Structures
1.
Amino acid sequence: MPLTPNFSSSQTTGEPSIVVLTDSSTGSDVSIVSRRVYLVNSEGDYVVPTGTSTDYVVWPIVSGTGDTIDIDVLTEDAALDITVNWVDVSGVTVETKTTLCGFTLFNETFYYSLTQAQATQSQPPPMIIQDSNYYTNKMILRVQIDSGNNAITLGDDITTAQNCYDLATFMVTNQSDFF
Amino acid sequence: MALSILQIINIAKISGYLSLSDVQKGSLFGKRIAPDTPKVLYMERKAVEWMYNLDPADDTLRLTANYLYSLCRGYNLRAQAVSGTGGSISPVDPINAPDPYDFTVSGSSFITAGSTTKTITAFIGFNLLFVRGGIPQSTINSGGTYYSWNRNTGEFVCSPALQSGEEVQLYPV
C-alpha cells in the first residue's frame, strides 16, 4: 500500500518551547529513508533550533508511523506552517504534507495559573479577583488565544493567528499591568 | 461517589447557559446578584478543560475543578439533572493541603531578604504556587521573574532574590 503522508503536532505540559510531531502516516514506501521538517513562521522565515545550519530539521525514520520528534524552537506562542517531506536516499522528496498549527502553551499555562491562584486564595482579601478589571482582562486574554486558534482551524490564516497570539503574549509579558 | 473532573466540566458547561438564562430573566424579575456568573464560568471552565485535555492526570486538576464546581453554585443540581447524572448529591474530592505561607519579606521572615532558595518540608509532595507582589509567578524563565520547585525534596528557588518589603504568598496545591 503506498504511503499516505500525515502527521500531528502537540505540546507537553511544562515544555512550552518544544514542538512535538508524531508521524501518523499509513502505508509504506521502501524508497523513503528519512524525513525533513520545515517550520515557517508568519513572517515567512524558517524556524530551526539553535545550531541548525539548514532550513529544516532531520527527522530520522525509526518505525515510520508512530515516530515522534521534539523540536525546541519556540520562545513564545506561535502559528507555524509545518511541512514534513519524506525523502529518498538522494534527498529527493517522495511525499510531502503541510499543516498550519498553533502552539499556545506559554499563554495557556499562564491563563491556567490564574485559575490556580483564584482556587487557592480562599482566605480573606486581598485576592487576585479583586484587582482592577481582573475578569475583563482575563476574558480578553481568553478571546485572543481562542481567536488565534480559530484563525488556524477555520481560516487557515497564519498572519491573523500570530497577531492574536502576539496580543495575548503582550498581556502575559506585561502581566503586572493586567492581572 | 465523588464527581470526576470530566463530570465537573460538563456541569460547568450546562451551568453556564442556565446562569445566562437566569441573568436574562433579571430584566423581568429584578437584577440578579451575580450577573457576571456566565462569563466567569466560561473563563474558568476553559482553563480546567484545557488542562484536562492536555493532561487528565495533572495533579492540580482536582483543586481547580473543585473551584470550578464551587462557581456553579445555584445551578449545579439542575445541571446534573439536565445531564442525567442527578438523583443524589455527589461530594467533591477534598484537598488536604498544609496552610500556605503569606508574609512580607524582611530580615527575619520565612524567606529572608536577599534569599533565592528555601527548603519547604511542609509542602513536600505538593505542587507550589508562588505569588510575588500579588502576581502569580511562572516556572518558565522568559527573562523576568520565575521560580523552580522540587516537590520531592521541597527545594524552592526564585529569581531574582527576594527584596525587603515584598509581599510573598506560597500555596501548596
2.
Amino acid sequence: MLKFIIRRVVWTIPVILLVIFMTFVMMRQIKGNPFQVTERAVPEAQQRTLDRKFHLDQPWYIQYAYYVKGVFTANLGPSLVQRDRDVNDVIKDHFPVSLKLGGLAMLWAVLVGIPLGIIAALKQNTKLDYAVMAVVNAGYALPNFLIATVLIYLFAVKWREHTPFPTNGWGGWETWVLPAAALGHAPMTFFARIVRGSMLETLQQDYIRTAKAKGLRWRRVVGLHVLRNSLIPAVTAAAPLLGFLITGSFIVEFVFGIPGIGRYFVNSVTARDYSVTMGITILLSMIIIFANLLVDILYGYLDPRTRDVRT
Amino acid sequence: MSKRFLWAALVGALAVTAIAGSSTAMTGKTDGSNAAQVLKMSIGSEPPSLDPGLATDTTSSNIILNIMDPLVKLGKPPALNAVPAAAASWKVRGATVTLNLRKSVRWTNGQPVTAKDYVYGWLRTISPELGADYAYQFEGIKGAKEYTACDPKKADCNALRAKVGVKAVGRYTLRVTLVSPQPWFIQQISHHSFLAQHKATIDRYGSKWTEPQNIVTNGPFKLASWKHDASITLVKNTKWRNAKSVKLNRVESQIIVDATTAENAFSAKNIDVNSTGVASVNIPKWKKTPYWTVFKALGTYYYGFNTKNIPDVNQRRAMAISIDRSQIVKYITKSGQIPAKGFTPIGIAGGPMILSKSTMPVKAQLTKAKAALAKARNPKRSIRLYHNNAPNHVKIATAVQNFWKQLGLDVTIRPMEWKQYLQFLGPPPNADVDVYRLGWIYDFPDAYNGLVLWTCDSGNNNTNWCNRKYDALVNRATRTPNTAKRLALYQQAENILTGPQGQLPIMPIYYYTFNMLIRQNVKGFFENPTGQYDLAKVSIR
C-alpha cells in the first residue's frame, strides 16, 4: 500500500507540470491586455513599464521558466490587476472560505441525501418512494443559481422576520446555511439516487436473505450489513465530489457575495490576471489529484475484494 | 431506543439555541442602528487597490477620497468649480499654479501633511518603477511625460525626475509648472491620483501599505477594516480638521457584486444604500418606490464608425440620425438617461452652448436619413456591428439593427468578450469592424477630456478618423484660459464632430446616469457627475 501511495505522489509532479503548461498556453491564446481595465487606453510608456515589470515582454519560454520556478518555490507571484496583493495572499485569504463552504455543502448533501436514499430504497415502489424520488429528480434538474436566488428570496427577504438568515455575506453560522443548501443540493440528489440504487441491489443479495432467514432483527440487518455495503459507491464518489464542490462554487459565491476562491478564479480569467489564474489552477488541480488519491486509498480499505488485486 | 433518541434531540435543540443566541453574524440584520449614525451600503466590486498611485476605478476612488483629504473638491454641478479642501487657496498665473496648503491637515499618526508629501506622491505615481495607469493624468505637468517614459535600465531617470514641474517651495506651498495653461487643471487635481502619500509608511510596508493595520491617511474617515471581497469598514476620524461637520460614525460597505442579491439585501434592510445597481427587469418595480435615485453622470454612450470602411460622411449621417434615441432610453436603459445631442454631455459646464449647433436627433429622422443615404456614393450595405457582451449592449444593438434595416442596411451583430474586444479595437481597429460600441466617462469636468479623444494621435480614437483642423482647435483650447473663448473653441470642435456639416466619426447615443436605491432616512447622499460621493456630508435621520 505504501509503495502505491509513493508512486502516486511522485506521479503528481509531471501532472502539475503539464497543467501549468496547458494553462499557460491557453491564457496566452485568449489574448487581451491585463492592464487595460476600462475603455481608457493604456499609454505606451506605461504599457512598456508594466510589461517589463511583470516579465510580459520576455519570450514565452522565459516567462514559463519564471512561472515554474515560482510554483516550486511556493511564490506564485504578484497579482497583475490587484497591485497590492500576491497570489499567495489571495489563496490564503479566500481558499479557506471555499473549503469551508464546500465542506458544509458536502455535509448537507450527506445528511439529507443519504437518509432520503435509504428511505426510498426501504420503501421501494410505495408512494413514499415515488414522492422522494420525484423531489430528488426535480432538484437534480434545477440549476444552483436558481436555487440560490429562490432561497435568498424566501428565507432572507420574504420570511426574514422568522429566520435568522441574511441575504449575503460570510461570517457567523447564519450565513452558512443557505449557501450550503444551495451548493449542496445537487450532490444531495446525487447521493440520494446512488444510495437508493446500491441499497436496492444489496437488498437482493443472498447473504441478506440468509441473515433474515437466520432470524436477525431487520433493523440490525439493514443497519449493519446492507448499509455498510451500499455506502461504498457513495463514499468513493464523495472524495472527488468534494474536490469539485470546493473548486466549482463560483455561482453560489457570486450570488451570496461569499469571498471564496471560485469567484476569484473566474474573475481572474476575465481580467487576464495571469499569475492569479495560474496559481489557482495549480491549487485546484492539486486538490482534485489529492481527492482522487484519497478515493483510491479509501476504496482499498472499504472493499477488501479489491485489496489483493491492487497490490 | 426511543429514550436515547429523545435525549439526543433535547441536547441538539439546546445546542442550536445556545449557538443562535451567542453568535453575531457580520451581516446581521440589525435595525435601530440609525441613531448610532452607521451607514450600511453595498458596493459593486472589490476595489483593486486603495493606493492613490495605482487605483483607476470609481469604487477604489470613492473609498480613497473619503479616507484622504484632496487638495480641492468639486462644487455643485454643472459648474463643478474647485472648492478649497486640503488647499486653502491657490493662484494661477499662465502655466504656473501655486497652492497654499492648510496647516491643519494631519496624517492619522499625528504628523502634519506638508507640500513635500504631495511632491513625493505625485513623483511616485509618475515614476517608471511604479507603472501606474493613471500617470497619464499628469502629462500636463512639465517633464512628467518624459520621466514616466524613462527606462531605468537604459538611462538615469533621476535627472528627469528632478526636472518634473512639481516642487515644494515652502513647507505648505506647492508649485506646479504645466506645459500649457490648462484651465481645467485646478478641477483635475480633485482626482485621487493627486493626493498626498505618506512616504515612511510606503517605504516600510511596500505593497502592503494599504492594509488597515498599516495605512496612514488624512481624511474624514479612517480605514478600520478591509475583508477582501467581503466588506470594507470606515470609521470617523475624530482628529480630522473638520471632524465637527461629519455626522456618520461608521460606514460599512458590503461588497455585493450581483445586482439581484444587492436588491434582496436592500429589501431585507441589511443595507440602506444599494450602489451596486438594480437588475434591468426590476427597474420598473423600483421606480415606483421612493428609494429609486438617479444621478446625472458625465459620460457618453456612443457608437464609433470605422471611417476606413464607411468613408462617406453621408452614410454615417444617415446611420446616426435614423436611430430613435428616445425609445432606447425609454424602453431599454430605463434609468433616466438623456438622449445625446452631441458627444459632449449636456450636463458639463458650458454644455448647452457647446452643443447648441449639434444635430443628433432625439427621435428617429427616417426620411432625412434615407435622403442622406441616397447622396452617398457606393454605400456599404453589409454592416458588422461589434460590441462587448453585456445584456443592455445586446438589446441596444438589436434595436439599432432594426433601425438600420429600414435604411436598407444589413447588420450583423458581433458580441465579444471585454478584453478581447478592447484588443480588437486597437487602435487601429480590426478591418472587420464597421461600427463599434464604447462609452466614455469623463476624468475631469471639462469638455476637453472628451473632445481630445478624437484627435489624430489619441490612443482612444478607434475610428481611423484624423482631421488636422479639429486637432488644432482642441490644441488651442489647452492654451485658452478665458472660459468664454474656450467654450467657443469647444463648440467649433463639437460642430466638426456632430454639427450640421459634422464629420460624424462617432454617433453618440445617450448620456450616462448612476442609479441607486437609497433609504429615506439617509440624508445628503449625492453622487456627483464624476462618480464621487462625499460621506462627510451624509447623515442618518
3.
Amino acid sequence: MSANPVVAVRLRVNGREHTAEVPPRLLLSDFLRYRLGLTGTHVGCEHGMCGACTVHLDGAPVRSCLLLAVQASGAELTTVEGLAPGSDRLHPVQEAFRLEHGLQCGFCTPGFLMTVTAFLRECPNPSDEEIRRELSGHLCRCTGYQNIIRAVRRASALLAETQGHRGAP
Amino acid sequence: MKPPAFDYTAVASIEEAVAELAHYGDDAKLLAGGQSLMPILNMRLACPKKLVDLNRLAALAYVAERDGGVAVGAMTRQRAAERSAVIAARAPLLALALPWVGHSAIRNRGTIGGSIAHADPAAELPAVALCLDARLTVKGAAGERTIAARDFFRSPLTTALEPTDLLTEVWFAGPPPGSGWAWLELSRRHGDYALAGVAAMVALNGSVVREARLALIGVDAVPFRATEAERLLAGVPLSAEGLAAAAESVRQRVDPPGDVHASAAYRRHLAGVLATRALRLAAERAGGA
C-alpha cells in the first residue's frame, strides 16, 4: 500500500521551470536524464562514489544519485548543459579541459566540470594539493588524472583573465 | 528505479517527525543528508516502508554558542559547520575533522546529526563527539532526553537511539584552557573510509599535561576513547617515553578489521603511529613544544 504513488515537483533546471509528478523513489539523476532528457548528467556507480552525476543544487555541487527528485522540489539546479554561455561558446572550465586534454572517453567529465566550476568560484587560485584534494571525489578511468589537474590550473588562469576583462573599464 | 518502493513524507516540524516514528517504529527510516542512507537504498540493503525526510526542517539547522561549547542542530550541513567561525573558535577539533568527511559534494548534503546517528566505525564525527564530551539531545515518544556521547555508540551502525527517537542536537564541549588539538587519519585516497583515524587533545599547564584525550576510528567495532593512554599521559610532562607507553596502550586496546585495503596488523601499527603523531601535534599547538 502506498499513500503517495506520485508526488508533485516543481524546480528550475538551467534557468527553465519544470513541473512533474514523480514516484518518491525516483532519483534526481534519473529524473534529469529520463524525464527532462538532460543526458549530460552521467550515472556511474549510483552510490556516491564516482562523482559522474554531480550537479549544482542551489549553487552547491551534490551527487544527483543520492537525492530523490522530490527533494529537489523548489530548488534551482544547474547541470552540465547549463554551463556554456551559448551554443557556440564553452565555459572557461570546459575550454580548459579541451585545451589540456583533460578527458578521453568523457564519461566522467560532466561531474568533474560541475565540481571544478564551483571549486574555482570559492578558491580561484588553488594550490596543486587543494586541486588534488577536491578532485579526489571523482573517478576517471582513462586519463590518469594528470591532464585533469593541468586543466584545473588552466581554468583558474582563464577565469582570472575573463574576470580581468570584465573588471576593466 | 534503484531504490525499493517506499512511502514518503517530508515533515514540516519536529513533532511531525516524532509522530511518524511513533507510528511506524522500525518500519521507518529517517532521511537526513542521505549520503549513507541513499547508497543503502540504491543497493537495496534496506527496504523501509516509510521514509521520513528531515530536509525541510530548517529549525534543526543552526550553530550556536552555549554553556561554553557549541550547540549544533542535527540537520546542520557538514559544509556549513566547516565554514562556521563559531565552530572554529569553540570546537576546533570539529573544524579540523570536517574536511576529512567524504568530499565537498558529500558534505554539501551530509549532516552533523546524520553522521553521528549512522555510527559508522570508520566515520570521523562520532570520534569528534567522543573527544569533545558531546551531549546528544533526543526527542522520542516519551519526550526529550540527553545522552552522553560515551554512552551512545554500541556496535557498528548501532547506537543508543530507539527506533522512535529523533536526534535533534549535538552539543560539543568547549576547549579547556591551554589546549591544542589534532586530527590525523590515513586512507588510500582522500575521502575514502579511514584505515585508522585519531583525534587528540592535549591541555598543558606549563610543561605538565593537565589533560590528554585520544579517540580512534576504524580500528574497532565502535569509535572509542583510549582512556588508558589518556591516563598515562596526564599529570606529567609529555615525554618520548610517555608517548611510547601511550602508543603501546593503544595497540593493546584496538581490535581492527583486516581486509583488502589493509591487514589487521597494519591497522594496529598505524593506530599507534597516528596516536603518537596526533598527541605530539596537539601538544605543539597547545604551545608546549
4.
Amino acid sequence: MSKITIKDLAKIKEKTRAAMELREDGPCRARVVVHMGTCGISAGAAKILHTFEDLIKGRKDNGVHLSVAGCGGLCSREPMVTVELPGAPRATYVDVNVKDAQRIFEEHVLGKRAVTGKMLPSDDPFFKQQVFIVLRNRGLVDAEKIEEYIAQDGYMALAKVLTQMKPEEVIKTIRASGLRGRGGGGFPAGVKWETCRHAGEERGEERYVICNADEGDPGAFMDRSVIESDPHSVIEGMAIGAYAIGAKQGYVYIRKEYPLALEKLNIALAQARAYGLLGQNIFDTPFSFDIEVHRGAGAFVCGESTALMASLEGRAGIPRAKYIHTVEYGLNNKPSCLNNVETWANVPAIINNGVEWFTRIGTGDVSTNPWGGSKGTKVFSLTGKVKNTGLIEVPMGITLREIIFNIGGGIVKGKKFKTVQTGGPSGGCLSESLLDLPVDFDSLSDAGSMMGSGGMIVGDEETCMVDLAKYFISFLEEESCGKCVPCREGLRSMYAILDRITQGKGKKGDIKALEDLSRVMIQSSLCALGQSAPNPVLSSLKYFQEEYERHIDDKKCPAGVCTALYEMSIDPAKCTGCMVCLRNCPASAITGAKQKPHALDKKKCIKCNICYTVCKFDAVKKN
Amino acid sequence: MAVDLTKVNQIIGKWESRKDFLIEMLQDIQDEYYYLPRDVLVEVSKVLEVPLNQVYEVATYYKAFSLTPKGRYTVSVCQGTACHVQGADTVLSSFERALRVKLGETDKNQDFTLEAVRCLGCCGLAPVVTVNKDIYAKLEPSQVLKVVDKYKKMPRQ
C-alpha cells in the first residue's frame, strides 16, 4: 500500500462523515449508540446490543445505524444508550433493560417520540459542568473503527506537525499550553519533552516515548476508559510526542487487569499500521514510528517511572533512586519520555485547537512559568457514596462541592457528606470545610492531598476514617517493593498501629507514633510510593483527629465500620417481623416468628452485616 | 508429573524469544497451566539465557504469578477503595464461608481459588467480584451463595 497522504485522510474523513450523516432522505436516518465499556458490559450492555441488532435485522431498510461506543460516563446508571435523529438533540437513556430497548426502538427510533422515564435530559447537572477535551470523542467513535476517529479530525494533528512544524515548535507549543502530567505528578509535559530531546541529541542516542497505562490506584479508571473508548487519541498523542522528541519507538505499559482496553488498543494499533499512520515514513516524511504493548503483571509500584521501565526490560519492577532522571537515562539506559494516558490524549487536541484555546480553560498563568497554573481539564472517576458515580471531565479550578453535589448529585440515601479522598493511596482525605477548594494541582497539594491520577472517592457518615487510613496503608504495605527500609518497615509499623486502633486496643501515644513514622518515611523513602504513603494517615489525622481519639479513648467506632467496636441489635419498635434478616443470617443468630419482632443473639453474631443491608425498615442497629 | 514443554516453547516463540518479553511469556504460561511449574521456569531460563534466579525473581515479584496450582475458577473480590467503602470486606468473608477457604487459598477439589484484587476499575459498580472472566456488579453478601452454586454446578471439562 502506498503511503497515506493528508489528502487521503481528508477523503476518509469526508466519506465516513457522509456515511454517518443523519438525513431524513439519506441512507442513515437514525443512529443508536450502545455504550460498551467494561462498566456497561458488566451491567448487561451486550444483551441490549443484541436486542437492537435483532430489531434492526427484523426490518428491512429502516435506515437505522447501530454503533458501539465506549464508556457513557454515568457508570451507576449503565447500560446506557444514545439515540440520534436528524435535527434533534442527542437523547441519552440510562438503566436500559431489554424491554426498554424494545420500547426505545419502536417509539423513539422509528416513531420519533422520546420515551420518558429513563431519558436523561441533556441539561442534566451530571453533564452540565463537564468540559470534554480528553473525552472529546465520547459516544462518537467506535474504538474498533479508525475511520470514525479520522472523521472526528483524528490524525490531523499528527499530519500537521509532520508536515508543517519543526520538532522544536511542537515542544514549544506543548510547553506554552501549560499541559501538566495527568498521572498525578503534574510535571509540565513540554519541559519533560524538551529535556528528553536534548539528552538524546547531546549523546546522539535513540530515544523512547512511553505511555503509562498501569493505572494502579484503587478507585481510578480514567485511563481504562480512555483506552477502551478512544485508543487512537493516545496513539496519535504518542506519535506527536515521538516526533517532537526524536523517538522511533514507543511503548504502552498496560495493566493486565484491563483485558478489554488491551484488546481495543491492539486493534487500534493494527489499524493505524494498516493505514500507514504507524510504521515507516509516516505521511511520506522521514518520520518513522511504531508502538509496542507490554502487559503489567500486577504490581502497583510499576506505575512509578523507574519501576515501570525495569518491568519493560523484563525484570522485577523495583524503583531506583532518581539522581539521574529517566528522561536522560531511562529504558535500556536511553533517554525516555514517560507520560500518562490522559496526558498523551490531550496532545492532539492542543495541536488542533491551539495554545490559546487550551489555556483559556483552567487556573493560573502559564505564559512565563509552566508551573504557574493548571490548564485544561482533568478526568476523574467519581465513586463512593455519591448518587451519580462515573467518569467525568471537568475544567481545572472547579470546586469539590460542584463536583460532588452538582455533577455527583450529592450523597446516597440522604446521608451526610463526610470526606472526599483524592489522589489514590498517596493522596489524602479532605473534610467538609475544604469543599470549596478549587481542584487543581497546587490547591490540592497545599491542603495535604494531591490531584493524583484522578480517583475521587466520596465517603459519608458511615465511612470510618481510621478504617480508610488502615485500608490505604494495608494496600501500600502489600505493594511496597521492599527495597528501602523506611517504606517497608514504616508501613508495617503503621499498619500494626492502625490495626490495633481499629481492634479497640489503641494506646495513648499511638497518634504521635503515627506522625513520627510519617515524617521519617517522607524524608527518607527511596521513591514516591514511600514518600507519599503517609498522606492518607496525616490528612485524616489533620481533619478527623477526633475520630481517632474516639477509637483509642472510648473504644467506639462512630461510623459503625470497625467490627470490634460495635454490636448489632434489632430495634423491636421498628422490626416488622418480615423474616428477611432471619433467612439471610449465615450464623443463625437471629430468631423470631413472622410478624413478631426478631431477636439477635450477640454471642452467635459474626457481624457480617448482611442483616443490616437487607433490612428495609432500618430496624437493625449498630451500637 | 512431567510437564509438556511444547506449549512453553510455542509461547516463547510467540514472543520472539525476547528477554524483555519475559513477563508476557510467564503470563501466558500461567494462563495455560494455572501456575508456573518449576520445569517450565527452568526451560524458559535455558531458552532465553536468563539466569534461573532472575526468572524466579520475576515469577515471585508479580501478583499475577503463582508457583502452586490454582483452582479452575478464580474468584477475585475487588478491594479497591470504592468497593471497600461499599462493603467489600463482608462480601469477601461471605465467600470465605461459602467456599470454606481463607483468602488466597484453593479448595480441596481445586475448583476455586479465592483472591483479593486491587481495583478492577469498575468502581461505579462497587462492590465488584469476578469469577474468571465473568463480572458481578453490586454484589450483596446475600447473593454470594448463589454465585458459588452456579459454578459448582458447571461440568468439569
